[in-house]
Amino acid sequence: MRKSQNDFITTYIDYTKYQNAPEIYHRWTALSLLASTLQRRVYMNRAYFYTFPNLYTALVGPTGFTKSTASDIGMNLLKTLPQIETISGEATSWYLYSWFGNMSSSGNPCCCTIYSDEMKNLLGDLNKTDMITLLTKAYTCPASHDHHTKSGGKLTLKNICINVLVCSTPEWLVTGTTTNEIAGGFTGRFVYVYADQTDRSYPFPEDWVTPDIKQLRLDLEHDLTEIEKLSGPVIITDQAKAEYIIWYQQREQECNDERLRGYYSRKGELVLKTAILLSVAQDDSLVIDDSTLHNAWALLTETEVNMCKTFSGVVDDPALKYKDLVLGQIARAHEQIMTREDLLKKNWTKFDGVILDRIITNMNEAGFVIGCTVMINKKKKIAYKLIKQGP
What we know:
Layout: H1 8-15, H2 23-38, E1 42-45, E2 50-51, E3 56-60, H3 67-78, E4 86-88, H4 93-105, E5 110-116, H5 119-122, H6 128-138, E6 144-148, E7 154-158, E8 160-168, H7 170-176, H8 179-183, E9 190-194, H9 211-227, E10 232-233, E11 235-236, H10 238-250, H11 261-265, H12 267-282, E12 287-288, H13 290-310, H14 318-321, H15 323-332, E13 337-339, H16 340-346, H17 353-365, E14 369-376, E15 379-386
Parallel strand pairs: 1-10, 3-8, 3-9, 4-5, 5-8, 11-12
Antiparallel strand pairs: 1-2, 6-7, 13-15, 14-15
Helix pairs in contact: 1-2, 1-9, 2-3, 10-13, 12-13
């Protein structure tokens, strides 16, 4: 029997309410916790395949915006379940394939949660292609998958289920992600939870955390152990199914951003995944009714409002791709002035002077910067001064 007076997610939000991260970060961290706990034990039978409630979630926001603090709270709670394998840090695809192979050889399912407080560490240049391939194939939780090694061997992976929780800044997504990855299959499998402001301000949260709040943590730990016992198929009521059919036939109208087409093309299954998790958060019935379905739509709609901001700088043209980066560098410079020489030195691995000229022209015409000259060591140098913050 569960101890929380409210559903799991509401209780989790109450427990974390004195932490300064936006509530939406904590809400999706709670969903990721539930997904990690359920693994492959709870599912929907879709005749030709099974829908498992695993999630690929990315918390996105400015540097220092307590993304990792929010996600760390959830991961620390997950560690109270010793049977849940959590792979964190700079995990590589080679390590994961090896681990999966060992689990399959011993007759255990290949279930784990991958956690990285910096998405760039998970998708570093050396590791990126293989990791993207692995995570793309694993998203549907295949019952069996053959991996052919470079040495000519073969690993047969059984009963895969990967849940992913990562944190990122928009700047890294601009420089570390291509439009092909955004429009393609990999990124479309992620829920990007973007926030850049919060209404919470608790410099000393320890002054606010009462014994009642600490008890909520104990209740959450207990309830996770109860949720871990759940298994079997999820049932959707006739009313919920009828409403889902109507929405499903009109869902294409929701996508108005080409960069999110991959996400929206998979939203049909994501709605069901989210509804399963909301149902489990509420009770042990494993039933999706029309109320649960409405809550799933509302949660995703709330997230989608700002999702496009995650990819505002992800474009093919490098003059557009790096404009937000350059604008931010000028804004952070002393007196908001930066020389052309310093900009090129700072970004010499990203673009050359020709591209910088196009970036500056674009920002000048938009009224964000003006050209000027500064004296450095008795020499005049071309510089750029911020006159208005970006949009």
